[in-house]
Design brief:
Blueprint (H helix, E strand, L loop, with lengths): L9 H7 L6 H15 L9 H17 L6
Helix pairs in contact: 2-3
């Protein structure tokens, strides 16, 4: 699925692990992905870039600030 701010959370939940990921985490990850990888497919992001995005998502989750880099 193509990454956008309006995309379904399902592909993100699948890649992050549906049982281990909250909706808040998936929403924060969607925000990070749409900011840095808009238009790309979720499955096309390599592992290194995915882990960097997870790190950014954790910052958003902890601070509540989507503008964190």
């Amino acid at each position: 699925m193509q990454i956008s701010r309006t995309m379904s959370l399902d592909p993100i939940l699948e890649r992050m692990g549906r049982e281990a990921t909250s909706l808040r985490e998936a929403e924060a990850m969607r925000e990070v992905l749409s900011e840095h990888y808009a238009g790309q497919d979720v499955t096309a992001i390599n592992e290194k870039d995915w882990l960097e995005a997870v790190g950014r998502m954790e910052l958003i989750k902890q601070t509540g600030n989507a503008g964190m880099e």
